[in-house]
Specification:
By secondary structure, the protein is mainly α. It is built from nine helices and no strands. Helix 3 runs antiparallel to helix 4 and helix 4 packs antiparallel against helix 9. The longest helix has 55 residues.
């Protein structure tokens, strides 16, 4: 195998590996990440999976083209891999910017507001409204079942409004996670714990930290895999076209010298 073929083969294998990494990152996206990122449209798992599949297929064509010296296969590898890796870089960078800006906006809005009615329109108000809705259902449940200290206890007691809330509330799992892991209650402001315990500090700081950390991790994986594939395509292009360009330059310089 010539050096040129070997370099293209390595680049194609790196593209396949990058595609598999993107598919794995999206497939193994844990439920905890979903409850933090999906409500704010910060989990483009479908797009990442699709790009990963495209990179795997195009990289496989690149391996075939390098092994058989087939230009058509190399072209079928280079163009889709270049487009997919470029789009992956854009998605990763946009996700990185959105995660950090939105988590900062939520924290700033909660810190500057003196009460729920003063919250500006945005995700901080949306989550605060979700909490208040769930707290209202819990208070109603306790009127009928005084021994129920949490929404889960109301659910086990068969309270209809709580069962309906469990089916429709998008923030149930989120607040349950926050209260169990962060010893907090409420969102922007201290409130009645929804899942047992005493009134504690609000959960917005922990929420913002988790959104930032989980979003940055997903964005970093996407950017890293996309950059590896992009670098592989660029190396392939240089390996294929540089000798041709060098030969043309040599021919041109030889022709000028003979004249």
């Amino acid at each position: 195998m010539k050096r040129q073929q070997f370099c293209v083969l390595l680049a194609a294998l790196a593209t396949v590996a990058a595609g598999m990494g993107m598919v794995y990152a999206a497939k193994e996206f844990p439920t905890e990440n979903r409850i933090f990122l999906e409500p704010m449209s910060l989990s483009p798992t479908f797009s990442i999976t699709a790009l990963g599949v495209i990179l795997c297929i195009s990289g496989t064509l690149g391996v075939f083209g390098a092994a058989c010296s087939t230009r058509a296969a190399l072209l079928a590898y280079g163009l889709p891999a270049f487009v997919a890796s470029s789009v992956g870089l854009i998605i990763g960078l946009r996700l990185l910017a959105s995660v950090n800006s939105q988590s900062l906006d939520i924290e700033t809005a909660c810190l500057r507001s003196r009460g729920p009615e003063n919250l500006p329109a945005g995700w901080s108000k949306w989550y605060e409204n979700n909490y208040e809705q769930m707290a209202t259902v819990l208070s109603s449940c306790r009127l009928h079942v005084p021994s129920a200290l949490s929404l889960n206890a109301c659910l086990q007691a068969g309270v209809g409004s709580v069962s309906d809330l469990r089916q429709t509330a998008t923030s149930w799992d989120l607040f349950e996670w926050l209260e169990s892991h962060g010893a907090c209650s409420g969102f922007c402001f201290p409130g009645t714990p929804l899942f047992a315990g005493d009134v504690r500090s609000p959960c917005f700081r922990l929420f913002a930290e988790e959104v930032q950390a989980r979003g940055n991790r997903l964005a970093g994986l996407t950017i890293g895999a996309s950059f590896a594939a992009f670098l592989g395509v660029c190396c392939t292009a240089c390996t294929i076209f540089f000798p041709w360009v060098e030969a043309r330059i040599f021919e041109a310089s030889s022709g000028s010298e003979s004249e």
